[in-house]
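User: Before I run my own analysis I want an independent prediction to cross-check against. Here's the chain; please return only the structure tokens and, at the end, one sentence I can use as a sanity check.
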Amino acid sequence: MSKDNSEVLAKLDQLTTLFVNEFNGLKTDVSGLKADVSTLKADVSALKTDVSTLKTDVSGLKAGQARLEEEMRKVKEVVGVTRMQEIARLDGRIDQLTLEVMQIRNAAE
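Assistant: Structure tokens:
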């Protein structure tokens, strides 16, 4: 019986060693996973910062676009007024030239 006990104890020691080795391997794997999770968290944090920066940039661009559109509207308005003034000036000049031509014809008759 003592031989059976020693065989059982030897088998138990062997299984315990296997268990401890497997457990230590699992602990190493978990430690590696924890490092990976920490890296992923840092990456996500950096991405959130980048997204926030991009949102701010887009907001600034939209505000700039709105300002440019307003300036463009003002320029179009000024150009429109200037065109109308030029047309009115030319129309007046045409009227003046028409009168002069009529005066010259009348004088020639």
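Sanity check: The first helix runs from residue 2 to 108.
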